[in-house]
């Protein structure tokens, strides 16, 4: 892997906020531009505030950080409110929602929820509860948008979620999942995750902390889109930083048990590489399950280090587009066998052509 | 995909402006932009060489597609990101102005923003909140030509910690009949050409007066909140506005009241507490000028 000196200003600051004291005005200019494109400005604000470093930030840059943080704070209170309402609606049909990703970090008051912004609230329910959940929510103002029969079919048949629900008044978007990964290729035993969920008094669940990390890693490294890749990596970095020394092996064992060691391996590797996460050296050995071979690792390094960045012209390295493209295909192949994938993509292509014509 | 980034290399087509607290870089090779932006921003322009920190990096360019030649369009990019759909190429200048307003209203929450105009003279600072079409831009432009300092015709910013209104002092966006009207009344006013068929009809931009531009970083405490309404053929009619109504009017016209939370509430409350609040129906500028100049004299006397 390339050495750490290639690191961008945002990654360096996420890894070590103390660097703020040394940044020049030009570096702040880059930090704000890159941080904004990676949806990480509010997080940078929070990390600097925690270390009482906001006072070293030049005025002009400071106001952009504050602005992003105010927006994130506003969203944070909205997320709490939405989750309360959701839990109440689902309580009436005896379902307790389990939060995933950003919504869970915020709700569970994790460091990874600080300065976290989100586009939708991700929720997990049991597959057998899915249709009554959907029915119930549709009676209280949620609808699914611009989705034709094929999309409905695609979501329900091949993915691990139903089409996004939108609240007609508040425009909040809700993604309801029944698994953490598309059901076709691997069968992830979701019951093993649900077994360990802790529910609070309001009937809202969050994954236990190892599962939270493993889910985030699976989501990032098995999906094909990396628009918020660096942000997701930073989430995991913050989750890692909450672990104590005897947690690391338990985390690894849990990933092995769930047969999700590979994404955890990548998460550890790239968090350490990109964000200098304090991860012990000795938790993974080459003989452990989930370790890629030397060739796979080489390819993975080339590809992932090109997409786990702020998606901004200042940060893109040569090969960025190709890496993005290859990983997009890999993501699809991981989700679906070719016999499903090829017709699906052809259909998407045809549709984009006919939409493009209008 | 037309959302491509380009390098920052176009030195000759880039302008740096500093107005109020903002530093903006605009890059464009569109002819109307090259013609009118230096004209409109001339009072601000020479203050800046290439600054180290830029608040908003904007590009107004034709997309690199067939649309370059067939019914040409322009796109607005904020640091490589295109928040809007493209507009017909002849609207490039208004697109820049509207886009920059969007940047401030959407991304900058140091101040509480109101959809309002603001003018100041001799320490009398008047906020003119009103919905689009109520004539606030026209009124603000007329008052500016009459010797008042313009804070903004579109976004009035108030700093929560000090309660000061902070000027932006940008070109005034004039619409439809008001363009010719102002041109007749104020032959000295400097306007761009007319841009036709925009979402707001015919648009022209008025260059800020030297007074407005030279004091673009000097804030002022608001003293009056006056909601204007243009009523054709009417004589001037000023009536006191109850404070709770003025408060609701003000926050109803805020872009980021909900984001600032309690600080926004406190700022709006103390603003309304401190200011005299009126509604104003008018049709003739002479009467309006007399009324506004009267506010100034009243404040000097008292």
Quick description:
The complex is a heterodimer of chains A (358) and B (302). Chain A is α/β, with parallel strands linked by helices.
> What is the subunit arrangement here?
heterodimer
Count the helices of chain B. How many? Answer: 10
The order of strands across the largest sheet of chain A is 3-4-5-2-1-7-6
Radius of gyration of chain B: 19 Å
Number of spatially distinct domains of chain A: 1
Q: What is the helix fraction of residues of chain A, given as a range?
A: 55-70%
Count of helical stretches of chain A: 15
Helical percentage of chain B: 25-40%
Q: Helix- and strand-based class of chain B?
A: alpha+beta
Q: Which regions of chain B have little confidence, pLDDT < 50, spanning 5+ residues?
A: 1-9
- Termini separation of chain B (Å)? 62 Å
Mean of pLDDT of chain A: 89
Rounded to an integer, what's the Rg of chain A over CA atoms? Answer: 21 Å
Major β-sheet annotation of chain A:
7 strands, mixed
- Class based on secondary structure composition and strand pairing of chain A: alpha/beta
Q: Give start-end ranges of low-pLDDT stretches of chain A.
A: 1-5
Write down the secondary-structure element order of chain B.
EEHHEEEHEEHEEEEHEEHEEHHHEH
């Amino acid at each position: 892997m390339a050495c750490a000196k290639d690191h961008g200003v945002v990654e360096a600051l996420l890894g070590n906020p103390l660097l703020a004291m040394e940044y020049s005005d030009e570096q702040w200019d880059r930090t704000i531009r890159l941080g904004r494109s990676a949806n990480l400005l509010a997080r940078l604000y929070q990390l600097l505030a925690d270390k009482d470093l906001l006072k070293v930030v030049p005025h002009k840059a400071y106001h952009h950080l504050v602005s992003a943080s105010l927006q994130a704070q506003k969203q944070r209170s909205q997320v709490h409110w939405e989750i309360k309402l959701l839990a109440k609606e689902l309580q009436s049909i005896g379902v307790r929602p389990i939060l995933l990703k950003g919504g869970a970090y915020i709700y569970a008051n994790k460091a990874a929820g600080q300065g976290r912004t989100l586009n939708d609230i991700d929720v997990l329910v049991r597959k057998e509860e899915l249709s009554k959940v959907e029915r119930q929510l549709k009676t209280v103002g949620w609808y699914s948008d611009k989705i034709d029969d094929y999309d409905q079919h695609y979501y329900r048949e091949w993915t691990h979620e139903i089409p996004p629900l939108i609240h007609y008044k508040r425009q909040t978007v809700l993604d309801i999942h029944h698994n953490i990964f598309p059901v076709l290729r691997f069968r992830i035993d979701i019951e093993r995750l649900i077994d360990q969920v802790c529910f609070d008094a309001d009937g809202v669940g969050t994954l236990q902390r190892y599962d939270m990390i493993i889910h985030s890693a699976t989501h990032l490294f098995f999906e094909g889109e990396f628009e918020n890749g660096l942000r997701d990596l930073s989430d995991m970095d913050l989750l890692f930083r909450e672990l104590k020394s005897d947690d690391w092996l338990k985390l690894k064992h849990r990933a092995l048990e769930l047969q999700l060691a590979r994404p955890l391996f990548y998460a550890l590797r790239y968090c350490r590489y990109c964000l200098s996460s304090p991860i012990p050296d000795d938790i993974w050995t080459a003989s452990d399950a989930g370790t890629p071979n030397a060739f796979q690792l080489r390819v993975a390094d080339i590809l992932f280090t090109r997409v786990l960045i702020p998606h901004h012209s200042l940060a893109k390295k040569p090969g960025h587009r190709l890496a993005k493209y290859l990983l997009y295909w890999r993501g699809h192949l991981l989700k679906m066998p070719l016999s499903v994938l090829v017709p699906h993509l052809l259909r998407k292509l045809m549709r984009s052509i006919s939409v493009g014509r209008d | 995909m037309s959302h491509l980034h380009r390098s920052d290399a176009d030195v000759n087509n880039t302008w740096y402006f500093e107005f109020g607290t903002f530093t903006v870089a605009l890059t464009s090779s569109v002819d109307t932009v090259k013609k009118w932006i230096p004209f409109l921003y001339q009072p601000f322009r020479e203050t800046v060489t290439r600054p180290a920190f830029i608040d908003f990096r904007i590009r107004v360019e034709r997309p690199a597609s067939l649309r370059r030649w067939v019914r040409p369009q322009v796109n607005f990019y904020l640091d490589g990101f295109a928040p809007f759909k493209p507009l017909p190429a002849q609207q490039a200048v208004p697109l820049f102005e509207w886009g920059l307003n969007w940047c401030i209203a959407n991304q900058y929450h140091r101040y509480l923003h109101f959809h309002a105009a603001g003018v100041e003279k001799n320490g009398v600072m008047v906020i003119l909140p009103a919905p689009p079409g109520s004539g606030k831009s026209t009124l603000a432009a007329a008052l500016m030509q009459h010797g008042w300092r313009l804070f903004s015709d579109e976004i009035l910013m108030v700093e929560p910690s000090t309660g000061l209104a902070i000027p932006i002092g940008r070109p005034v966006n004039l619409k439809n009949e008001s363009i010719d009207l102002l041109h007749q009344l104020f032959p000295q006013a400097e306007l761009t050409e007319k841009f036709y068929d925009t979402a707001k009809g015919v648009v022209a931009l008025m260059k800020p007066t030297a007074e407005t531009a030279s004091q673009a970083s000097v804030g002022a405490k608001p003293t009056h909140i006056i909601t204007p309404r243009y009523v054709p053929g009417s004589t001037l009619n000023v009536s006191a506005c109850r404070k709770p109504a003025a408060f609701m009017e003000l926050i109803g016209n805020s872009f980021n009241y909900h984001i600032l939370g309690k600080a926004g509430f406190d700022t709006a409350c103390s603003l309304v507490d401190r200011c005299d609040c009126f509604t104003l129906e008018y049709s003739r500028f002479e009467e309006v000028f007399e009324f506004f100049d009267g506010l100034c004299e009243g404040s000097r006397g008292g």
